[in-house]
Design a protein that fits this description.
It is a single chain. The protein is of the alpha+beta class and 648 residues long. The protein is 22% helix and 33% strand. The strands form 8 sheets. It has a 6-stranded mixed beta sheet with strand order 8-7-6-9-10-11, sandwiched between helices. Strands 25-24-34-33-30-31 form a 6-stranded antiparallel beta sheet, with no helix packed on it. The chain has a 5-stranded mixed beta sheet with strand order 16-22-21-18-19, with no helix packed on it. Helix 2 runs antiparallel to helix 3, helix 2 runs parallel beside helix 7 and helix 4 runs parallel beside helix 5.
């Protein structure tokens, strides 16, 4: 029995140091002081290649969450789908602009700390760069927009400072507020973006009660991941759900900063500001197919290691087409084979059209796409040769072009006829002495006219020609008479206010007003790229702008999510055109100044912004209060009535 216990103690004595060593190793790794965070990934096609330029936005933080600012490529390793890839470039974000939405908790539990929170948040906004944009939402039992996106940091900061104790309500709908903030960034300016959530509690109606929000935490995380928007969370106090806050931040590419005391908030916001301004951009080239992929970024800095894995999607590349034959600058004549290569990951290609100087010369609907071009049907000289890939719906998918030179065709010599010898005296037929010598007669050659006259059908041909000539003369006479009659009638489109003997001036020609446009709107920016540059003439007043197909006169597409269904109205007041906001969700702005419910007079060149993204330029074409105009200043008194009518 004693021997048995002795053996067990020996085993325990041997295992215990190993357990301590293992625990120490794991603790050291967990507290290594290095944390890598991938905030987002963007991918775009390398021009002219079937490859992607991929950019990874990330941060490296020490154990106090302060950014590490001196990373190099030597400190990093990168794998794409488990395969090592080369990092082409590593650089700090520097002055790269960012769009941020600050989501502030104004529930009743904030009564004692709202002042410190307001001060820290306002100072954070005022420190943003001149190209950065920010917006502010507050939440309690409902979500409120305090300030829409603006690069005027003083205006946004002042809006934060106006949050008062009277606005504090029961309830904390944090998930709904964060979801709405993500919607704002999705419809805002493309590029770097993020959502900052400040809260001292949980998502609940009352303390310890049911959830306040309609959306769940998973809804928020999934939406943030789909939009590649990191969520940064600043939690304060003892009532926060620290696990949920950290999950929301870590799964979206953000960070979670915990402040136990309101006095620490200014330092916490400063730490977040430092993180945002010391991110890195890593660039590499990917030749993977479009679709879902993942990268693993490894960190090795001063003997401290970490790695971060991030999933992303490579977008579908557009179709690409290029000439295999001929080559740019080639010169040729006769028949030339046109051959193209096509690379396509998207919708199927129905065929390739070949064109010379804009004129279609041929088409091929099967691979390999080629066409034999007979250049003798084209004018010699420099020629623009094009190949156009068409989809099944006839839409153009891709185009390639090059310049070639078509040579003059080589003339083919005409065969010459050898004339028959003319018989001479030496060629006379010689017979016996008893026969006479008869010379060969050469028949006289007739001209074409002589042959026609001698033709027995000549009288018939002559009669037909005479009849056609008479018919042509009759048609010409009738046409001339009809033209004179038409010129003698005064057009209905213009009414001349004159007596039969009065001289006529251009003052008396009244131009009807009818449907003359009074203004022109040109779309400058929009989430629907196909709408950019589109122009709308305002011919009726009032004119409604919005996304409602039933109510809007100027209709925006569903891609412009920040534009309300009935967003704004343009109408006439006196001799001016004015714009009025129709209680839109994200507001109406003229030259970046938000208008209220009162009408705002529009001036030529004004820029109208609907919500955070859609902008239009206003151009005044005519005074809204003008009556019918006359064309003054041109005196045509020297013309008689027939001259006047002929002129119009």
């Amino acid at each position: 029995m004693l021997r048995f216990l002795e053996d067990k103690l020996r085993i325990l004595f041997f295992i215990f140091p190993l357990f301590i060593a293992l625990l120490y190793t794991r603790t050291t790794e967990a507290q290594s002081g290095l944390q890598g965070i991938i905030h987002g990934i963007s991918a775009e096609q390398v021009p002219g290649e079937v490859a992607y330029k991929v950019q990874v936005y990330f941060s490296a933080l020490d154990n106090s969450f302060a950014p590490i600012k001196d990373l190099t490529i030597a400190n990093l390793t990168l794998k794409e789908d488990g395969t090592d890839v080369t990092i082409d470039l590593l650089e700090p974000v520097g002055n790269s602009a960012i769009s941020l939405v600050l989501v502030m908790d104004t529930s009743r539990s904030m009564s004692y700390t709202i002042g410190d929170a307001r001060k820290a948040a306002a100072a954070f906004i005022e420190r943003l760069g001149q190209n950065d944009q920010s917006a502010v939402l507050t939440f309690s039992h409902e979500v409120n927009l305090i300030s829409s996106f603006s690069s005027n940091h003083s205006v946004v900061s002042e809006a934060v400072k106006q949050i008062t104790h009277e606005q504090l309500k029961q309830g904390s709908c944090m998930y709904d507020a964060t979801y709405e903030a993500l919607e704002m960034t999705a419809s805002g300016t493309p590029g770097r973006r993020g959502v900052i959530v400040f809260t001292d509690g949980k998502d609940e109606i009352i303390a310890g009660g049911a959830q306040c929000s309609i959306h769940t935490l998973d809804d928020v995380i999934n939406f943030a991941q789909s939009e590649k928007t990191p969520v940064y969370v600043i939690g304060m106090g003892e009532n926060i759900n620290e696990n949920e806050i950290k999950r929301l931040a870590s799964t979206t590419g953000g960070t979670a900063l915990i402040s136990r005391d309101a006095a620490e908030l200014d330092a916490t916001f400063t730490k977040l500001y430092e993180q945002l301004n010391n991110e890195y951009i890593l660039t590499y080239q990917s030749t993977r197919a479009y679709g879902p992929h993942s990268i693993t970024l490894g960190f090795d800095y001063r003997n401290q290691k970490d790695q971060e894995t991030y999933s992303f999607t490579l977008p579908m590349l557009p179709a690409m087409i290029s000439f295999k034959s001929p080559a740019e600058g080639d010169s040729f004549g006769g028949k030339m084979p046109l051959i193209v290569r096509v690379q396509n990951e998207g919708p199927g290609i129905a065929g390739i059209e070949f064109a010379s100087n804009g004129v279609v010369i041929g088409k091929d609907v099967t691979e390999p796409y080629e066409f034999e071009w007979d250049t003798t049907t084209t004018y010699p000289g420099e020629t623009l040769l094009e190949a156009i890939a068409l989809g099944k719906d006839g839409a153009e998918l891709a185009r390639s072009e090059l310049k070639v030179t078509i040579l003059e065709p080589t003339p083919t010599p005409e065969p010459t006829e050898t004339p028959e010898p003319i018989p001479t005296s030496e060629n006379t037929l010689t017979v016996t002495d008893e026969t006479a010598i008869i010379p060969t007669e050469i028949p006289e050659e007739l001209t074409p006219i002589q042959r026609l006259i001698k033709n027995e059908k000549f009288p018939l041909y002559a009669g037909i020609a005479a009849a056609l000539l008479i018919l042509l003369i009759i048609i010409i006479v009738l046409t001339v008479r009809n033209n004179k009659k038409n010129h003698s009638e005064e057009p209905e489109d213009f009414k001349l206010n004159k007596s039969s003997n009065d001289d006529v001036t251009m003052d008396e020609i009244i131009m009807p007003q009818s449907m003359r446009p009074v203004a022109l709107l040109t779309i400058l920016t929009s989430d629907d790229r196909n709408s950019i540059g589109q122009q709308f003439s305002i011919t009726k007043l009032p004119t409604i702008l919005g996304r409602s197909a039933e109510d809007a006169d100027i209709l925006f597409t569903a891609k412009d999510q920040a534009v309300s269904r009935r967003h704004a109205k343009i109408e006439k007041q006196g001799h001016e055109l004015v714009i009025t906001d129709l209680q839109s969700k994200y507001g109406t702005f003229v030259n970046d100044l938000q208008i209220g419910s009162a009408p705002q007079v529009l001036k030529n060149g004004d820029v109208i912004r609907l919500g955070s993204r859609a902008t239009l330029r206003f151009e005044k074409l005519a005074d809204a209060g003008e009556s019918d105009e006359t064309m003054d200043g041109i005196d045509i008194s020297g013309l008689n009535n027939e001259d006047t009518r002929a002129a119009f």
